[in-house]
Description:
27% of the residues lie in helices and 22% in strands. It has eight helices and eleven strands. The two termini are 15 Å apart.
Amino acid sequence: MGLGQTKRDIYMTTGHLTVPELFPHSRMDAALADIADWSAEVLDALNEQERAWYVDHGVRDAQVLRKLDNPHHTRAFFAELARDPALLPLVEDILGPGVSVYFSQIFMKPPRGGGPKPVHQDNFYFGPTDPEGVVTAWIALDDAGLDNGCLYFGEGSNRGPVYRHVAPPDEPFNLQIPNDIAVRQPMTPAPVRKGGVSFHHGNTFHRSSDNPSARWRRACAFHYVRNDVRFATPALPYDDALVMQVS
Ligand SMILES: O=C(O)CCC(=O)C(=O)O
């Protein structure tokens, strides 16, 4: 089953779409268990520079990773999730038939931790050969609400240009839209319950806040491209060798 014309129209007009209850809670719990095993292995092996980027500094008493890259490549569980028959037809409904995962990320905002992610456009990071050929599927592994750092989207910003991003000097990877441009774009929250999926276009402005609540906010983002699309002018290094064709 695909999205259908109405939902596709919403996605094309607003630049994002939430599909609730795509996965059962048991599957999300299995994902979280796999992430816990993987995190323990990664934390042991980080060098000092990687620790500064990947470890959440908001949590004083525990070492918690802020993110993990390329679960589709590293973990069999996530390779299977990226090809799941509930998810794949929706991605193909947006991009057309024949898609690959180019990059993927696990985002973790622990209770009373997890810093904000400033307003950005994925297509500035990726520099794809066709901006229409990229969609992110953001899978809520926990309930993501206003209190624990859900995503916010700039309605219709998918139909505008990709802006040059800037980064704080001490965080060169934290590319973001300059403030004078970002403040002109109203941002609307997109809460997603555990097991739901939020899709966004590569040009869509989006951000998340920190997590002052007592509950986790974890998510898995698969960045899909149409098979003919490449990251031609990426702002950060992405490894073409990790591209996984899923249809
Ligand atoms: O989960 C977040 O806080 C950020 C997600 C994001 O930027 C993305 O999926 O492109």
